[in-house]
Amino acid sequence: MRAVIGHSDDVDEEDAIAEVIAQCREALAGEPPKAGMLFMSAEYDHQLVLDAIAEAWPDLPLIGSTSDGEMSSECGYRNDSIVLTLLAGAELTATAGVGRRLSEDPEAAVVEALGAIDPDDKPRIVLTTFAPSTDASMVLARINAHMPTTDVPVLGGLSGDHRNQSRIHEFCGSELLSDSLPLLFLGGDIQATWGIGSGWEPMGRAFRITESAGHIVHRIDDRPATDVYTLFYGEVPSGQLGAFPIAVSEDGPNGPWQLRAVLGTDMETGELRMAGGVGSGAWVSMTEVVKSGVLSGTLTSIHNAMAGFDGRPEVAFLFSCAARKWVLGSSAEDEIATVVEALPGTTDALGMAGLYVYGEIAPDAPGTPSVLHNETCITVLLGAA
To answer: Could you give the CA distance from residue 261 to residue 323 in angstroms, rounded to a whole number?
Structure first.
């Protein structure tokens, strides 16, 4: 298995995708690609780009989405660009599926997307960039329930844009989508590992959520949820809430935890609106971070992924939370620099492609269900088994 990456930030999408396709064709040297991942700015004419890729490689199993910024080992970090990663190799198999109208009927969308799985070729890994149009935790629970085998990790993130929330799109093949669930099923003689890191750490004691509904937390320790939140952070301006997530554990105050971003507070009702479902009875802690801590989370993610990989990977995908970019500000390009420095041979044979997303997806550990993370960096490594 091998991977090639094309990346361009040309302001004209026609010129940008022509450059990306030329880069990939040169690197492929005539070998046909088996699968593709496409990360793209919300500013481009997406259908034009998709049609150009389909003309270059007809019927290519490809998924992707718009993002809040793109990155690669080819060009570093770019705020508005196109990144195309193509996977090739005789040992690799690939199929793409999509579920439509995700927010209207999540169950039907999951069944539709998983219907693309070849019953004779069970996937080893599933990559996704699906819409943040409904409770992603619930969507993942349904994917986990319907997956043919329980040991297939679902990895990726939620599609995004530049905080506009109105130009979010997903891609499957040459189809331009919204409110959808695209899935890329990769099989064959390959291996995949992943690592999770954030830089945010729980502080103080844990509290019990005593009332919640979906992604709305009403009460913590039988008090209005905002009372506990503001006790630690004060009244955080809405534009800065991304820097103050909470750590959520479903398995007791000392159990494994995922970060949940706070999207809004209602001081009158005492509610916290979260970026993902939080169940009643879960334990929560407030968190803290500094800028260097965000990048330490990136390193943790990379090191954890590398620790589980047998041999040398061929490509790294990075799914990093848009809130991490917002916290880093003008230092956002340091995240990709950290990745390039930490991954062996990134500037030579090992390619890296990534994007900033509105939620991150990975199991906490191999053999466990895939779950939603916020404020997190997830590194996915792929290569031959």
So the answer is: 9
- C-alpha distances (whole Å) from 89 to each of 2, 312, 352, 383 are 6, 16, 18, 10
Question: What are 154's strand-pairing partners?
Answer: 126
Q: Output DSSP code: residue 214.
A: T
Phi, psi of 331 (to 5 degrees): -95, 10
| DSSP assignment letter at 11 | S
The DSSP bridge partners found for residue 201 are: 288
> Using an 8 Å Cβ cutoff, are 176 and 46 in contact?
yes
Compute the chain's Rg from CA coordinates. 20
Tokens encoding 347: 């500037």
Q: What is the pLDDT of residue 348?
A: 56
pLDDT digits (tens, 9 = 90+) for 13-30: 999 999 999 999 999 999
Query: Which single residue is written with the structure tokens 């969308």?
Result: 109
The stretches in the chain having pLDDT less than 50 are 347
Q: What confidence score (pLDDT) does residue 320 get?
A: 95
Closest CA to 231 of 250, 204, 212, 249: 204
The region, left, alpha or beta by phi > 0 then psi within -120 to 50, assigned to residue 111 is alpha
| This model's pTM is above 0.70 | yes
Contacts of 348 (CB under 8 A, 6+ apart): none
Question: Helix H segments across 206-281?
Answer: 225-233
Domain ranges of the chain: 2-197+292-384, 201-288
